[in-house]
């Protein structure tokens, strides 16, 4: 099975090509590198997210409400990277994808984020993350039951 | 004693258009100011949020969700946390993949060393999270576009 972080080396090669099209594609690969790493981690912890577009938001929400400040910060970066990726793939008028240096920064940030998520496979972070997400899911389930 | 000279009576009055003034006579009396004012009313004045130009989309979304004070807070916090900001601008984006989702984006173009930017961003994200309510944070998002002065291509291989 392919490791999602392999997308990062592709992203870097694309960034080095320095054309707008390759920089846009680099943002997209970098995002999917971290997104799939996050999905795999949650899967390992027993949280199965749907195999559709809603999983982008659901992954963000779970990481953003897990109660671990560093992981919540990571969730914010995940969200911003997804917004950049949306813009890179869909908004051809956006002129923000001409900077090779900004793209290199984004890829280096994703590398840090992947290392952070990989550290969550080990204790005590593993249990903290699992408990935090379970607690969040209990809250939203209670909310949805109350509003039904 | 002075006598006033009466204006001459119109030589002829159209029965069908008694108040009609010939355009060739009226046009030269339009002043530059009036022409400018006409232009002004056709093109609304540019609008700003937190001192930043706001497009119609940005303005309307911000009004609809009462985001303006929170954008001001997010911009102020950005100026507090990042030493070198090259540019800040506002944008609006409809999510192309998730129905009924749109975001107001605060694009922050910043420079510094990689560690400086990451540390500043960590603090900035925490400050945003503790200052701006979740339901508002869900509709607006600061996007960090960093240029790290010490980042070499080989360092991220």
In a nutshell, what does this entry contain?
The complex is a heterodimer of chains A (about 150) and B (about 160). Chain A has helices at about 5-15, 20-45, 55-65, 70-90, 100-120, 125-145.
Output the keywords:
heterodimer, A: 148 residues, mainly alpha, 6 helices, B: 157 residues, alpha+beta, Alpha-Beta Plaits, three-stranded mixed β-sheet, two-stranded antiparallel sheet
Task: Tell me about this structure.
Chain A has one domain: Nucleotidyltransferases  domain 2 (Four Helix Bundle (Hemerythrin (Met), subunit A), Up-down Bundle), CATH 1.20.120. Chain A starts with 5 loop residues before the first helix and ends with a helix. Chain A is about 75% helix and about 0% strand. Chain A is built from six helices and no strands. The model of chain A has no long low-confidence stretch (mean pLDDT about 95). Chain A is globular and about 45 Å long. Chain A has about 150 residues and is an all-alpha fold. Chain B is α+β, with helices and mostly antiparallel strands and about 160 residues long. Chain B has one domain (about 45-155): 2-Layer Sandwich (Alpha-Beta Plaits), CATH 3.30.70. Chain B contains six helices and five strands, in the order H-H-E-E-H-H-E-E-H-H-E. In chain B, the strands form two sheets. Chain B has a three-stranded mixed β-sheet. In chain B, helix 4 packs antiparallel against helix 5. Mean pLDDT of chain B is about 80; it is low at about 25-30. The interface of A and B includes residues 69, 72, 73, 104 and 111 of A.
């Amino acid at each position: 099975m392919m490791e999602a972080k392999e997308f990062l080396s592709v992203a870097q090669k694309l960034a080095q090509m320095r054309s707008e099209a390759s920089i846009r594609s680099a943002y997209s690969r970098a995002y999917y590198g971290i997104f799939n790493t996050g999905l795999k981690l949650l899967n390992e912890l027993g949280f199965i997210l749907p195999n559709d577009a809603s999983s982008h938001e659901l992954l963000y929400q779970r990481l953003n409400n897990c109660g671990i400040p560093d992981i919540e910060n990571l969730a914010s970066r995940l969200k911003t990277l997804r917004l950049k990726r949306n813009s890179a793939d869909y908004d051809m008028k956006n002129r923000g994808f001409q900077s090779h240096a900004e793209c290199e920064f984004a890829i280096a940030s994703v590398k840090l984020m992947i290392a952070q998520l990989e550290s969550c496979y080990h204790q005590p972070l593993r249990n903290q993350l699992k408990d935090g997400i379970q607690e969040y899911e209990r809250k939203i389930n209670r909310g949805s039951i109350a509003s039904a | 004693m002075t006598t006033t000279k009466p204006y001459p009576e119109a030589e002829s009055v159209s029965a069908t258009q008694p108040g009609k003034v010939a355009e060739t006579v009226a046009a030269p009396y339009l002043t530059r100011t009036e022409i400018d004012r006409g232009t002004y009313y056709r093109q609304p004045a540019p609008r700003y949020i937190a001192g930043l130009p706001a497009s119609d989309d940005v303005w309307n979304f911000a009004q609809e969700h009462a985001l303006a004070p929170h954008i001001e807070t997010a911009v102020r916090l950005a100026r507090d946390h990042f030493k070198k900001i090259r540019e800040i601008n506002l944008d609006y984006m409809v999510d192309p993949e998730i129905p009924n989702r749109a975001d107001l984006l605060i694009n922050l173009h910043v420079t510094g060393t990689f560690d400086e930017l990451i540390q500043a961003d960590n603090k900035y994200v925490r400050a945003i999270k503790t200052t701006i309510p979740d339901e508002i944070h869900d509709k607006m998002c600061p996007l960090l576009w960093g240029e790290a002065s010490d980042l070499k291509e080989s360092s991220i291989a």
